[in-house]
Amino acid sequence: MMLVAKVFLIIGVCCYQAAAFRPPSCGDGRNGVARNHAGAVETTNHIIDFAGSAGPSTRRLFSEDLLKGSIGISLAYLLPSPAHASGGATAGGAYLLSAKQRYNKRVVAGIKSFLTLDARDLGQVNAYFESSEEGGWEDLSAAGYLLANAFRTSSTKAPDALPSVKKWKAFAKEIELLKRALSKKDAEKVFSAYKNAEEKLDAYLDAVELPSGMELKQM
Questions:
Q1: How far apart, in whole angstroms, are the C-alpha atoms of residue 219 and residue 204?
Q2: Which is the most buried residue in 93, 108, 154, 178, by most CB within 10 A?
Q3: Can you list the residues of the chain whose pLDDT is less than 70?
Q4: DSSP character string of 56-74
Q5: How many CA atoms lie within 13 A of 123 on its CB side?
Q6: Strand ranges (DSSP E) for the chain?
Q7: Among 111, 167, 168, which Cα is nearest to 134's?
Q8: Using the 8-state DSSP alphabet, how is residue 147 labeled?
Q9: Contact 95, 29 (CB under 8 A)
């Protein structure tokens, strides 16, 4: 982008300087044309006069416009567009608002269900993970990630590099350990993993601008 801008700017300056140059007028013995070729002298002078002395204001105005256009193009390349300055459509605004409207309710429902679990009741915990409805883990795992992915500062940034996604994955990692312990019916490990996941949860909730776990329990 910088190189393109410089090229346009140089072209404009060169054209403007060229416009300022006026060739010497054709006079007796100084234009390299013999007097006995009067027709040639007249024709040559006419061409030079048309290109130079007859229309200097027109040429200058044209060159000034060209220079202004080159500067404008250069600035267009150098200055970030509103979309890039804000990270594009995915860097907030309408996209983030849409994501909140679409996923907030599902995320809150899934987390509230998680927080009200009795982690020592393996049947209750298992039912939470087996449910495919809103409020169960399956729905939360999809909505939670998608909401985290909407909180970005650049449309080109990889999802795994986003702080909100990192915090979601830290929480989800503890959930996977919980599910593994649940499959082995290891009540102690289930309880321990549940508590670890609960600790990771608030960081995620803060990253996606939702109330803390304690506040959600009271809602």
A1: 18
A2: 178
A3: 1-93
A4: HHHHHHHHHHHHHHHHHHH
A5: 0
A6: none
A7: 111
A8: H
A9: no
Q: Which of 7, 1, 8 is nearest to 66 (CA)?
A: 8
pLDDT for residue 33: 41
The first and second tokens of residue 168, run together, are 């979601």
Please give the structure tokens belonging to residue 44: 């040559």
Separation CA 85–CA 64 (nearest Å): 31
Closest CA to 208 of 134, 147, 156, 143: 147
CA distances from 163 to 141, 142, 148, 150 (A): 17, 17, 8, 11
Residues 6+ apart with CB under 8 A from 40: 33
**Would you state the structure tokens that stand for residue 97, as one six-digit string?**
């608002």
C-alpha dist (Å) from residue 94 to 89, 98, 163:
7, 6, 20
Counted residue by residue, the chain has a size of: 219
DSSP 24: P
Residue that is written with structure tokens 């390299």 in the block: 32
Q: And the tokens for 145? A: 């990630």
Output the CA torsion 202→207→113→100 (10° steps): 160
| The predicted structure's pLDDT at residue 97 | 82
pLDDT at 154: 81
